[in-house]
Amino acid sequence: MALMITDQCINCDVCEPECPNAAIYQGVEIYEIDPAKCTECVGHFDTPQCQQVCPVDCIPLNPAWVETREALHQKYLRLVEEKSAHALSA
Q1: CATH of residue 41
Q2: pLDDT band with cut points at 50, 70 and 90 for residue 22
């Protein structure tokens, strides 16, 4: 599953820089997570870094994006490949 940020977010700015996939961004009112980029830090860390630093515990699993650990790992590999291809073309 991808993660999501609930409306309990206090916009403290600590989660965004912790995301290795740049999946977290400032939304209209609170930070949001792009589920297409969220791997729950699979491939990077043992635990989701945004959840580790969140002072209000407002980053649960997103029930709309059910994914297995293998699917998250495949997403991680695709994102790494896309990042590498983009870096080579720049």
Answers
A1: 3.30.70.20
A2: very high
